[in-house]
Every structure is written in structure tokens, then in C-alpha cells.
């Protein structure tokens, strides 16, 4: 009996091994999805998988890196850009990263140069490290209003500034708005030039800004933005300067008592695209992206100006506000003229002259 059972079990095992050994024409590795599966050449491809593969291959991801947070009008503008592009073509998926999640402004510009990032929208100040002529936008007390800024930037002068970017592997597509920088401090109201005497003001690490504040009698202190709130809270610096929305969104009113409408520098945002990636796009794709950048830029300007008004009203509830009179504003301008003369040669005297002439034309 035992012999019969053993014989039956042996037959069963032989049959099982024969079944598993069949189909030697196909090699499959189901336990490792990273390895290819070889199929018979006559076998039709999986239509669903092929379709998915084509969609992935045709669509290109455009990543937008910005330094501000997701409450800022620039972020709203970036989302508008995404909406416009994706509504006009299936060629692109736009991803927007705020708060420097990808990189800070300078590093993001460098990533564009290397072709490892598609889009960034920095203020013009970091671009001075790449194109010295962009220092023209840091000259204080030059642009008097947003309307004049629009005329200057959207005209021949703005196009000329775009033309300077090609050698740096960058493409400029549109001018957006960061806005006018205004002063806060925790010592006293600032209504005239003399009120700045001795104030420790945090600035960006920018020689033009530093020289301008020194000329006005303040003690400028370069400092990274993330360190600023604590520095004002601890009294390391007396004040800072930024657009109204930045002041409000950063809660600077918690550690600052006085706000002044100095409007000393108008800073544009510039919509930059990686040239190496741009050159690979079709003419139609370039047109869609350029038009989207321009339209979203108009939206950004509108939202930024609305935010300026609402932020100012909100800040007035917490801070003592000083409106600088036109006469005092002219005194500020006159005081910093030596700074413009000092930096004109380094920026490029022709660029500075063109800039000031365009402003005068539209003022």
C-alpha cells in the first residue's frame, strides 16, 4: 500500500514540474517591476499602457520657483500662469513652488542657466550678480508711480533689458510687480531726511541700497530675510524696508511701531525661462508661454496694487503711519543723487541715462 501511495505522489510531482517548465519562449520577472518583461514580437502591445506612455512622453512639466509664500500676489499670478497655459495646450503641466521650496532666487537663476529648472520669477536685485545693468532698478527715488513703471518696463527700455539676458542663458518673458519698498522702524516716526539719522536699517546685501541709506544718514545692516523678525524683536536693528504686503504678511507690525511711505525703490519681478529649454520648444509653444506670462503679469500687477491698499489699511491699525510730503520726497531724491552718480558707470551710463529719460518722458 505504501509503495502505491509513494508511486502516485512521484507521478503527481513529475506532472507539476512539467507544467511549470512550459512556455520557455517568454521570460518574465513578476517579482521585480524595475526589470523589463520580454514579450513575443508577434504579441500585440497593451493599448492602455501604450496610451499612458504616450501621454507621459508628450507632456512636459514646467516648474515655477518663487521665493514668496502662498499668500502673496505673486503666487496668485503664478497660479494664473498655470491656469492659462494648461487651458491652451495639453503639452505642459505647470507646477508652482512657493516659499523657496526649490531654491532661493539666486540659486534658482543658476538652475535656469544649467537647464535644471524651467521658470523662476525673482525680483531684479539678485540679477545684478549676473547682469550688472540690472542695478538700474535699485537706484532709489527714481520711479514715482506704478503707472510710470508700467510704461517704462512695457516699452523699448524693458525690451532692451530682456536682450541683455541671452548671454546668461536666460530668457525674459514679462515684467511682474514686487512694488515700492517702504520703511518701518521701532524708534520714531520718519517724515523727513533728518529723522533717519543713526537708525539701524536692515537692507539687502546690495551696494546701491547700502550707499543710499548711508547718504541719508542711516546705518544700513545687510541681513538675510529669515533672520529679520528676530533681529528687530531683539533690537539688533531698528527697522527694515519692504513693500506693504510683505510687511503685513511677515507680521512685522508685531515688532515695529512706525511706518513711512518712503516708496524709495520700485522693484519689478521678472519672469525668467531657461534658454536651453526654451530653445527646444516649438514656436507655437513659445507663443503660448510668452502670452501666458504677459497676461498673468497683468493680473499680478492688479492684485499687487489691491494688496498694497489693503495691507496699508491693515498696517495702519497697528502702526503709526507717516505720509511723506512731496516736498520732503524731493529732498530725499536730492540727497541721494551722489549715489546715482557713483554707481552709474558700473551699471552702464547709457543704461542709466535711458532709464531716467524714459521715466521723465512718462512722468
Helical/strand content category: alpha/beta
Order of helices and strands: HHEHEHEHHEEHEHEHEHHEHHH
Strand content: 15-25%
Q: Roughly what percent helix?
A: 40-55%
Which CATH top level class fits?
Answer: Alpha Beta
Shape designation: globular
Task: Please give the domain count.
Answer: 1
CATH architecture: 3-Layer(aba) Sandwich
Core attributes:
D-Maltodextrin-Binding Protein, domain 2; globular; disordered N terminus; two-stranded parallel sheet; seven-stranded mixed beta sheet; single chain; alpha/beta; 363 residues
SSE inventory with pairings:
Layout: H1 2-21, H2 47-58, E1 60-65, H3 73-88, E2 92-97, H4 105-114, E3 119-120, H5 146-153, H6 156-163, E4 170-185, E5 200-203, H7 207-215, E6 219-222, H8 228-233, E7 239-242, H9 244-249, E8 258-274, H10 275-278, H11 283-316, E9 320-322, H12 326-335, H13 337-347, H14 349-362
Parallel strand pairs: 1-2, 1-3, 5-6, 8-9
Antiparallel strand pairs: 3-8, 4-7, 4-8
Helix pairs in contact: 3-11, 5-14, 7-13
